[in-house]
Structures are given as C-alpha cells and as structure tokens.
Amino acid sequence: MDVVKNVSKLLIKVSIYPTKDECYGAVEGYLILNHASFFSNFTEDDWITYYNENIHKQLTKQVRSIRRTLSLKSMEAIFSIFGSRLPPINTNAGPSEVAKWKRKSEVKDCFEGMFKKMNPKDKNSLIVLASVIDRVL
Predict the structure, then answer these.
(1) Residue 97: how many CB atoms within 10 A of its CB?
(2) CB 128 within 8 A of CB 113
(3) Rounded CA gap, 27 and 94, in Å?
(4) For the segment 27-48, what is each residue's pLDDT rounded down to a tens digit?
(5) What is the pLDDT of residues 44-61, one digit of tens each?
(6) Which of 59, 54, 50, 72 lies closest to 11, judged by CA?
(7) Are residues 55 and 86 both part of a single domain?
(8) Residue 39 and residue 110: Cα distance in Å, rounded?
C-alpha cells in the first residue's frame, strides 16, 4: 500500500503547495476509497496520531520532490525552446543571482515570447507556454 506515492500524485494536481489540512484530507479520502477496511480500524484520535507520526512528513517530502521534478522539467523545456537566446544560469543559484538573471534583456525577451504563438502564421498554433506545459506534463 503506497499511500504516500499515490496521494502525492493526486494532491499535486490540486495544489502545488498543499496545506496540512489538504494533505490530511487527501490521505483520508484516498484511504476511504481504496483501503476502507484499513482506515476503519482507527478511532479518530488514533488516526490523527497515526497520520502525524507516519504519513505527513513522508507526504510533504514526496510533494516537495514532485515540485522539484516539475521545476526541472519546466527549465529543460524552456531552455530547449529558447536555446541559445537564454543566458545560462546555475541551477543552485541563490535568490539574488536569479533576480539578476531575470533582469537581463535576453531573459525578458524570452519571457515575453512565452505568450506568443509557436507559429504566428497558423491561427490554430499554440502559444509557447502551452508547449512548455505539454512537455512538462
């Protein structure tokens, strides 16, 4: 029973930064639907204790891992689309270095390009951002 893995996949579709209550509700709902006999063995107090001691920390860690993966896939997609037009940046850069990078004219131009059509001559063409999302998901 890999509750953490399955719930994290469902939860990330609803909220990139789920609250503790959202996590708790998602796990509870998942168990009621998929493992009712297991869940029904708990009293309310026992369930809260079990969740806090055995699930919440792992679930938070798994959601954080999924966010990191989505972030990396997004960066890869953006760099593959804009290629050499984007200046490189260290993936471990601190906030001030990232802010400095974002202020570069090349980065601003690419950001604006995210909202333009992939093929301006095709009226049915997707915007670049939609292509990034398709590659990530």
Answers:
(1) 12
(2) yes
(3) 34
(4) 999 999 999 999 999 999 999 9
(5) 999 999 999 999 999 999
(6) 59
(7) no
(8) 50
| CB 26 within 8 Å of CB 13 | no
Q: Are 22 and 77 in contact (CB under 8 A)?
A: no
Number of domains the chain is built from: 2
Is 59 exposed, middle or buried, given 0-12, 13-18 or 19+ CB atoms closer than 10 A? buried
42 belongs to a structural domain: yes
**50: domain range?**
3-70
Range 100-134 burial, b when 16+ CB lie within 10 A, else e: ebeeeeebeebeebeeeeeeeeeeeeeebbebbee
Cβ atoms within 10 Å, residue 35: 12
H/E element, 66: helix 56-82
At 27, which amino acid appears?
A: V
Contact yes or no for 115/128 (Cβ under 8 A): yes
75 lies in some domain: no
